[in-house]
């Protein structure tokens, strides 16, 4: 991979210069105007309107400057050098893939979008290389999983596996991927209360593999994320405990979660609309792909964060939520069984409880943010400490 991660000096030129791919431009008699996002760059003069459109055609990232000069005519080399310098100074050149890069239209398009998200901190060509080393596993039996699988394929990742919910853990255990590759695991079950979510959660905690949940529309909202990062963020069971704390039918929700763990939840029918499924899958796919980028150059919008897409009688909403780990989560906590808790535990512990939840006001941090302050239902103080393992 070429080194394009460092900011480009104002006058330096890429080896294979490519016109920045995010711009729309208009050519008038004595000026060329390029626009992207909330900014515009204008080159004035008759020479600009005569010369730049032709030059743009050859700044495709597959030719060197000398080759471009030979193509458009060596007599204008001074004008070419000046034009390239001006384009570089205004951030309008990126490193191209070079002449030998395999063509993959959808991979290049996805790479261009991801590069733009990093303000070109990493070039589209380098993002395309990262995508070529990325493998995706999509687990789920419903329409959202089917749509995510289709979008992964069109995004140009190396391989995409669609896995049924019943065979998820077995297939994940057998995944044998190259050491230099990245594995994206997305679980998009047909039901909100699917057994596979808990199964993959425990597998991921054992294997220390990140995974992303995508929950279908449940009559109020669909959920995209979070990406659960073992040892860093809360896990799926933490998510369920936080979600319960926001509901005013907590005993019923606890019963549904228990039924989900036993694989006993069914649906009366499949009823989400195709547009809803596509919106959920599109948001999920775009945000999951950000994790392909180097962590030092790109945000992690789904790391411990989720987005709810709500549909109601008056329209739709999109809300971001943070997932906070539950200190004594049965699945991911390392202090759960360490014996006597801190003295203040009994007055501030977050545990599964039959007490009524504390409701947050409408519009607060949502399903994953509330920390219910309740007393534990079991006398944790009397639990004997677990023996330490041998060193
Ligand atoms: Zn947890």
Structural description of this entry:
- With 391 residues, the chain is of the alpha/beta class.
- Among the domains are: 17-95, Outer Surface Protein A, domain 3, CATH 3.90.930.60; 133-325, 3-Layer(aba) Sandwich (Rossmann fold), CATH 3.40.50.
- Helices cover 33% and strands 18% of the residues.
- The chain contains twelve helices and twelve strands.
- The protein has helices at 46-58, 65-72, 77-89, 105-117, 124-132, 143-155, 168-174, 195-207, 236-244, 250-261, 274-289, 345-348, and strands spanning 17-19, 24-28, 31-36, 39-44, 93-95, 134-139, 159-163, 182-187, 211-215, 221-228, 305-312, 315-322.
- A seven-stranded mixed β-sheet has the order 7-6-8-9-10-11-12, with helices on both faces.
- Helix 4 crosses helix 5 (124-132) and helix 6 (143-155) packs across helix 11.
- It is elongated.
- The two termini are 42 Å apart.
- 34% of the residues are buried.
């Amino acid at each position: 991979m070429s080194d394009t991660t460092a900011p480009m000096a104002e006058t330096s030129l890429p080896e294979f210069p490519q016109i920045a791919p995010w711009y729309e431009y208009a050519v008038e008699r004595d000026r060329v105007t390029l626009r992207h996002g909330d900014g515009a760059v204008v080159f004035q003069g008759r020479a600009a309107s005569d010369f730049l459109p032709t030059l743009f055609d050859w700044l495709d990232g597959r030719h060197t400057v000398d080759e471009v000069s030979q193509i458009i005519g060596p007599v204008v080399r001074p004008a070419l050098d000046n034009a390239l310098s001006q384009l570089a100074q205004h951030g309008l050149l990126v490193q191209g893939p070079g002449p030998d890069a395999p063509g993959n239209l959808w991979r290049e398009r996805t790479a261009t979008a991801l590069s733009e998200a990093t303000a070109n901190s990493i070039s589209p060509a380098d993002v395309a290389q990262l995508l070529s080393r990325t493998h995706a596993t999509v687990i789920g039996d419903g329409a959202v999983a089917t749509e995510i699988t289709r979008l992964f394929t069109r995004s140009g990742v190396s391989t995409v596996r669609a896995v049924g919910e019943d065979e998820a853990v077995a297939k994940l255990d057998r995944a044998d991927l190259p050491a230099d590759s990245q594995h994206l695991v997305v679980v998009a079950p047909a039901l909100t209360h699917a057994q596979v979510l808990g199964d993959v959660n425990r597998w991921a905690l054992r294997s220390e593999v990140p995974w992303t949940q995508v929950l279908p529309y449940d009559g109020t909202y669909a959920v995209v994320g979070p990406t659960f990062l073992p040892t860093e963020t809360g896990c799926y069971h933490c998510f369920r405990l936080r979600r319960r704390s926001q509901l005013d039918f907590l005993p019923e929700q606890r019963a549904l979660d228990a039924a989900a763990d036993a694989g006993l939840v069914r649906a009366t029918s499949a009823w989400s609309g195709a547009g809803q499924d596509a919106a959920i899958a599109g948001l999920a796919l775009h945000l999951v792909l950000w994790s392909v980028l180097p962590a030092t150059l790109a945000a992690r919008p789904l790391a411990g964060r989720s987005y709810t897409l709500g549909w109601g009688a008056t329209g739709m909403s999109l809300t971001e939520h943070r997932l906070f780990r539950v200190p004594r989560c049965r699945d991911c906590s390392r202090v759960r069984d360490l014996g006597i808790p801190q003295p203040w535990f009994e007055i501030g512990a977050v545990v599964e409880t039959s007490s009524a939840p504390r409701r947050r006001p409408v519009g607060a941090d949502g399903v994953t943010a509330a920390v219910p302050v309740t007393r534990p239902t079991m006398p944790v103080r009397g639990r004997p400490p677990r023996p330490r393992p041998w060193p």
